[in-house]
Amino acid sequence: MRIRLTLVYAVVLVGTCAVLLALNYALLYRSLYANVNDPPPAEIAATCDRANEDPVADTKCAAYGRVSIETDRLRRSTLVDTAGTSALALAGIAVLGLGVCWIVAGRLLRPLRTFTATTRRISQDRLHERIALTGPHDEIKELADTFDEMVTRLEASFASQRRFVADAAHELRTPLAIVRTGAEVQLAKRQSTPEQWEAMARRALTATDRAGRTLDALLALARSDSGALTKETYDLAVAAGAAVSDADTELEKAGLTVTTDLRPAPVHGDPALLDRLLSNLVDNAVRHNRTGGWVEVASNQQGGQAVVTVRNSGNPIAAADVQQLFEPFHKLANDRGSTGLGLAIVRSIVRAHGGTVTATPIDVGGLAVTVTMPISATRSIAG
User: Which reaction does it catalyse (predicted)?
Assistant: First the structure.
């Protein structure tokens, strides 16, 4: 690329100089052949016509001839010398220009060489590398800064992926370890009663149920992240009502008071994932509540958006910790029963449907989660 740039710069330089020299030659030619001191042609012709009759006219005519011949010679000589000098100057400029253009092209391409060397060093295990290009804020620096920002996002993505894989492995290893340990302890006993075997079996069922719930959550998260959705008009109010009905048993056990205000909120999306979305929100509100607390579920339409809000009482949550609740496998300090994927799945499903989700801590304790999605264009139900 350096050779091509050098040739381009040299051609432009030599071409420009050639045009300037040609213009200078044309101006010189015009100046030489426009001598205002020469007598008018009519006067010369009249003088030469009288040359046979008048000796003075004969002398002037001869002088005019000699001056004309000498002038023509000097003009040709000047033009030839000027053309030769211009050609030599143009050749010198071409040679010197090649050298200068080679140096200039090298300096211009130096940031690109730095760019190339850095990109070659970057790999999955060396995402900390940055170009960090210095110099004037031009197109090359803007490209380098954009590349650095992209690598920063990739580094964060890979780090998040590694944490996710490690957390998933831990969540799946724990119930398997419980089953294995229980079986080894039971087999190590010389005499085991049926009651002991039954207790071990119940622990194994509980552990495998936990592993199953974790796998189901991972599959839901993967499906929503893939973007492969079945789109049809679906009312979030219906999904919210079904989620509350499914949680009746848990609500009754915890002694929670449920308040619903479900108004039509149609969206265009995947019914199965939208059901999972509302189920996770209600389950999260029930799980992270206090005995005798309350849960509020509401849906409506606001400004061309379908809005669902789930609020619940519970322990106070610091505002700085709210956004972390949407990270996979993030659990509260007092959370011992969940997979840590509930709100992560909620965020993934909402994003897959072009919506937003926000969480706000309640001053007296608890959390309010609001989901906003575009209203279905095929059917808008008045609230």
Answer: ATP + protein L-histidine = ADP + protein N-phospho-L-histidine
Per DSSP, the residues of 243-283 read HHHHTHHHHHHHT-EEEEEE---EEEE-HHHHHHHHHHHHH
CA 24 – CA 18 distance, rounded (Å)? 10
Residue 369 · residue 343 · CB < 8 Å: yes
Q: Fold for domain 230-374? A: Heat Shock Protein 90 (3.30.565)
What type of residue sits at position 212? G
Is the torsion defined by CA of 236, 240, 241, 243 positive or negative?
Answer: positive
pLDDT in tens, the chain (383 residues): 778 888 888 888 888 888 988 898 888 888 877 765 566 667 667 767 666 676 766 677 777 677 777 777 888 888 888 888 888 888 888 888 888 888 888 877 777 777 788 778 777 667 777 877 777 777 778 888 888 888 888 887 777 677 667 766 766 776 778 788 888 877 777 777 888 888 888 888 877 877 776 677 667 667 666 666 778 899 999 999 999 998 898 888 889 999 999 999 999 988 888 988 898 899 889 988 888 899 999 999 998 899 999 999 988 888 888 888 887 776 665 555 566 677 888 888 888 888 999 999 998 889 999 999 998 755 544 43
Judged on CB neighbours under 10 Å (0-12, 13-18, 19+), 190 is: exposed
The CATH T-level fold of domain 162-225 is: Helix Hairpins (1.10.287)
* CA atoms of 82 and 77, how far apart (whole Å): 8
Whether 280 contacts 369, CB under 8 Å: no
One-letter amino acid at 370 equals T
